[in-house]
Amino acid sequence: MDSVKVQIILYWISVGFYAVATILLFSSTIFGKGRFLKPSLFIAAAGFVAHTAALILRWKQTGHFPYWGTYEVFASYAWGAVAFYLIVQLFRPNLKILGALVLPLSFIMIGIAVMTSTEVKEIPRTFFTYWLGIHILFAKLSYGSALIAAGVGILYLLKESSELRGQVLPLLEKLPDIKKLDYLNYRFVVFAFIMLLIMIASGSVWAYKAWGRYWGWDPIETWAFISWLVYGFYLHLRITYRWQGKRSAWMSIFCLLLVLFAFFGIPLIYPSVHEHLKYSGLA
């Protein structure tokens, strides 16, 4: 069996584990079955192992970290999101329910990836630099932190709304209080803001080495910069004008939508020098 077939099998195994974990998480949310939370985390971790193995096989096959074309881009971003979610559980185990947002998005992204071209394309030598590795790493971290920040914002809105109605679900009661959720939302936004900054800065250095200029107002560059500015605007409103609570939660959700558009929507609409993001079979 060749490497690509093994990768596809491993990806579908990870999709299966993520789907089962998602069902358990939604069952916990709807029926208040808190006992499903811990098994869901172990199942998600099992899926992550298969997911990681598939990426490693692709890496060995191509000789570079998976970042070229839909097959690699979507699978690696999904991996980054799940990795960030699992790391968060080490420090905030009472936020397991965030998997109800992270895992469905991840297995959908993997599903999109495996249904596109698995062709290995020749990569320009200018791409083989550690600056590109730094750029890609922090892109994954910025996406993961934006996703978790928005997830915490959603939890804040759900818990606040249920408290106002006087009907708090047992599962929501186990979450941190709304002031703590608001603060966690803010901290993850700060992290996303920093990760985006490092991603943009390292990308600029790589661009200079690859194309002889630091900045070219490429659509993806521009929208990544806009995303960073919007996160900065959020922090300005938070610190200067005390935007907290519900407004802060909604703002973090809006910021995530902007990041998703910048990372995944722009390549579908505009031509870009970021050819490694070209979605084979989708554009």
From TrEMBL:
It comes from the Bacteria. The keyword Transferase does not apply. InterPro entries: Cyt_c_assembly, Cyt_c_biogenesis_CcsA, Cyt_c_biogenesis_CcsA/CcmC. The keyword Transport does not apply. GO terms for cellular component: plasma membrane. GO terms for molecular function: heme binding. The chain crosses the membrane at residues 6-27, 39-59, 65-88, 95-116, 128-158, 188-208, 220-237, 249-270. GO terms for biological process: cytochrome complex assembly. Coiled coil: none annotated. Keywords: Cytochrome c-type biogenesis, Membrane, Transmembrane, Transmembrane helix. Pfam families: Cytochrom_C_asm (PF01578). It is found in: Membrane. Residues 68-269 form the Cytochrome c assembly protein domain. It is a multi-pass membrane protein. NCBIfam families: cytochr_II_ccsB. This is Cytochrome c assembly protein. It comes from Thermincola potens (strain JR). The lineage of its organism: Bacteria, Bacillati, Bacillota, Clostridia, Eubacteriales.
